[in-house]
Amino acid sequence: MNAGGEQGGSSVSDEEWERFLRESEAGSPDAPKEPSARARIVARRLREDPSGGQAWRTYTPVRPRRRTGWYVAGLLAALALLLVALAPGRVLGWFGGETGSTGPLAAESERPDQPPPAQDPQRPTLDEPFKGSPAALWADGAAGITVPTAKATGWMNTAQVAQALARTRDFLAASSLDPGVLAGGRPEQAIALINPKQQDVQGFLKTSLRTPSKDNDPLLLFSRFDKSSARLVGDVVRTRGRMTFREGERGALQVTTDVTYVYPVVRAAPNSDEVTRTIARREVVLSWDDPAKVHTDPGTFSLISYKLDMTNGGCGANTGYFAPEFGADRLTNGADAGSRVDPYDRSTPMSDRTDKGSNPGCGTATRS
């Protein structure tokens, strides 16, 4: 043994070496063992990559890719739905109007800010009497009249307001949608809902239905056709409109109705197939009065005002019936003279529409 512990040669004696060999053959726990294959692989990797590399049982998750495309698509879809809800007419116009659509439109909850979009100028037929018209997307009959949610108002609680609104719609149906009335019959069910003690209105009703005139025209309240001149195509009338309500005088429930009715008709002669449309927009304001304060019968209302704006309903003598004109008759009878009116435009207040001089209803309809 050299100084400093360095080995200058073999430092193991013959006796120690022989003992080592015997213990190795006998399986001594101190005997060296052949390294395993995995140990040799690990040792080689450590020599080749002293940094240690990545542990063989470790796992680094893959960073998820950002799905920006899905987020953008979802945002655009939400914006599209919002636009359809706020301005359905404008959106329909971008996609070719209402032609080929099945409808109906969502209920009208407030006055629109623009007329319905233009349609392709298609003529109506017996099978499709609303073809080429915004009414192709409107609801049938009373379903097109929006009834607001009831709430306690004036002398009425919530349930009473709901009943009054339902009866108001019953009046509109009985006066402007009832098949018998449309065929020229007397509107008995509608009249039964009007306060019989409202003397001025009762006088108007009797006079207008018996001897109609310019000042006493039943068409202000009722839709009627002379069955000897014209008849409805099928049994469907398209409507669009709404009701609003507030507290009126003496705590009454005041209801305002604003509804447009579209009537497809043909001549009364057999086998007639030329379809035209009479379009009437009515604003009727009525009052459900407190019987303790106003002389009225329970279940009836008092009329406050009633206005009519119509196209192709007659431009001559007041007969008490709509008098639609067909084809060349419009030019011959001068119905195409005067102001131009879009009968489907519900964005204009009725006060503006009815202020057309001494002969309302005789302007030029920009579409039928």
Structural overview:
Helices cover 26% and strands 16% of the residues. It has 368 residues and is α+β, with helices and mostly antiparallel strands. The chain folds into two domains: 67-96; 113-365, no CATH class. It is elongated and about 150 Å long.
Annotation keywords:
368 residues, alpha+beta, 2 domains, 7-stranded mixed beta sheet, two-stranded parallel ribbon, 10 helices, 9 strands, 16% strand, elongated, disordered N terminus
Q: Give the count of helical stretches.
A: 10
Poorly predicted runs are 1-10, 52-64, 88-100, 331-336
Number of strands: 9
Helix content: 25-40%
Return the average pLDDT rounded to an integer: 81
Cα radius of gyration in angstroms: 43 Å
Q: What count of structural domains?
A: 2
Largest sheet properties: 7 strands, mixed
The global form is elongated
Strand percentage = 15-25%
Termini distance?
A: 124 Å
The secondary-structure class comes to alpha+beta
Order of helices and strands: HHHHEEHHHHEEEEEHEHE
